[in-house]
Design brief:
heterodimer; A: alpha/beta; Rossmann fold; Pyruvate-ferredoxin Oxidoreductase, domain 3; 2 domains; seven-stranded mixed sheet; six-stranded mixed sheet; 16 helices; 13 strands; about 35% helix; elongated; B: alpha/beta; 12 helices; 15 strands
Amino acid sequence: MDNVLETKGMFPVFRRSGSETRTTHYCAGCGHGIVHKLLSEAYTELGLQDRTVIVNPIGCAVFGYYYWDVGGVSAGHGQAPSMATAISRLRDKAIVISYQGDGDLAAIGLGHTLQAAARGEHMAVFFVNNSIYGMTGGQMAPTTLIGQKTTTSPLGRNPATDGMPLHLCELVNSLRLPVYVERVSVADTARIMQARKAIRHALEIQRDRKGYTFVEILSPCPTSVGLKPLDAAKFVIEQMEKEYPLGCLRDRSAEAPARPEPKPWVRLADFFGDDGREAPRHEAAEVKERHFKFTGFGGQGILSLGLVVADAARALGLETTWLPSYGPEQRGGDAQCTVVTSTHLIGAPAVEHPELLVVMNQAACGKHLHTVRPGGLALVDATVRVDPAEIPEGVRVVQIPAIDIAAAAGVPKAANVAMLGGLIALEALGIPQHALVEALERSFAKKPALIPLNKQVLQAAIDHCRHHGLAGELP
Amino acid sequence: MTKFVKGNEAVVIGALYAGAEGYFGYPITPASEVAHKAAEYFPATGRVFVQGESEDAVAYMLYGAAAAGCRALTATSGPGFSLMQEAISYMSATDIPTVIVDVMRAGPGLGNVYPEQADYGQVVHGGGHGSYRCIVLAPGSVQEMCDLTMLAFEKAFEYRTPAIVLADGQLGQMMEPLRLPKEEAKPVDTAAWATQGTQETRRNLLTSIYLDAPAQEAMNLHLQEKYRKMDRAFQRAELYRCDDAEAVLLAFGSSARTARSAVDALRAQGVKAGLFRPITLSPFPIDALLPLAGKKLWTVEMSAGQFRDDATLHLAKAGKLAEIGLINRMGGMLIAVTDIVRTVKEAL
């Protein structure tokens, strides 16, 4: 075959498995070879060959990389648009092509096809529609015509059981971001010339960074459709084109804005405000580990209260863990979190038997009061009825009207802050007041206007405790 | 500098410092904060964030990203990881490096969003089709969520294979102080194999189809040789109070945190206990485990015993038949320190 002219953009010889040849692996009369040639001529003539990456599909064109002398990647079933998405997003200068057949693109990959089109990814999709699964063995595809016989519709596609053909160009054309959508055919010379124009136009749009293009190419498959090559071409013209009319459905290439250049990377130390200074480390010879549990109802600020305590501890250089309840619970149900602070590495962040329990509603009291370890403290809101019989031996229960104190100050949402005031007055956390107040202020970093009111609530709660003689360190 | 963050956020910080160029995400509890923070941090630092339409699409986006020679990652939980298996098999077969973080939740099925460790089998043994396995790292703290994400990128690109960070809901949701990495990783030159859309890389091809059986076998042998190399060079484990221990707990991830507390509690009660914590689950750190084979052993894990069975098998392959006890909870129930202490004391 040495006399065959070299095709622009294709390898001079095709390294098919075990041989070097100038023939393709396609059947006689198959349209893929023509589309391959049109595509390689287009990227070469437009000067895009070096920049082109073709995502090779599943199916007959799986070996496209035997022929196309461009970057080649093999996709999984239906996933060429996903891969092309990532390549295009990360390699801004690459011309990314997704080449797919109808079994691949319209069946298993339909979702990914439409999603990539809906996102308006910068890629050229070339969709070879031959109405049937080719390589897999002539099975029914979403594009199989009504009445068409295949190995999985041996009596002909029956709309009652097999549904109706899918029209991909029309589907893609229902989306807003695609720039260019056209259906062409390679069934005869005049049609091939139109297909050539369409393929070239799609790549020009990629070159100009305009966006997503979708070109459907009706293509004969003599082997699977079960016709001689000329009859297979006639089938495309006379039957497929009735179901899938040729033509341009959309061309917005003139008005589409070009893709902006990517932004430069920001230095991470600048982004995170890392001044290179190390946090202080809390030094202590003896391990002192403390276990706190905060409980109540979602919306009472339970998790934030725990977070303020944890943040105060870690700012002092203590090892600290904060573990929240999460998931459906946080939507209106129980809320709880645990905080462990230690001078040494912490094991389990979950707390079985806290030395301090904060309770802000009735349900939490029933659920958690019995877990407090002997010698521990439970700080409970005054709205909760505590049954003396339920208090574990050796546990001190203190009740303060945190919810009322916050409401009286006009900030009912700050009941958790009133609780923090109680913890400060009782010296229950082993963390100095200034550290807790600073952590409280940090927690309002995005709403600094709220800081004075919250500090007022905090002080009111401290004053309440002092006034009622509630004080004393945790045993 | 220290930041007080959730484990899920630490993953994103680690990825950024590892030089990740793209995050391809799909939300799932309890991993969603990884996507939330990536959506915030990646574009703000000039990188790419894409929310895909499904976990299988996202996994193929990772394949595309790596095929283009770029560092990218995603995070998911069990049901999502199951959907990613096909792409992970493809990437393994194509010598493609990527990083996936699995923040495990309880299963099987839809399960719930609380921590479990029952993805062990499908993650450690390469749950997709074919004879492959990935690098699997098991962080045990918020700091390690960051550090091991960085290490995952380093090793994935060193061996050109997918690396999985196997965490769980507790590690993802808990907050601890995180020391930010000191330096950003240097970009890796991938031009030798990746398709970057450049003249230099135009002839690069990434595929996993070998129609000839001998070629397919050769590819398999190549993978197995790579895994042997990894096994020899990259085992990591942490031993805690094991030197004089009579009873040793084997645990990874957040179970290792609980087990560590149990070791301290047992020691306080006069029981010589220790903890063996694998940091690499694949390669399995058999070299560090082997000397402990004669001691009384238990795994502490949030699964039906997947890790216990694996440890038993690794010891047996190394010539040590050991009976390993199982202390476990499932369904999102946390293992209590007191339960571990009681079980060990009753057995001694």
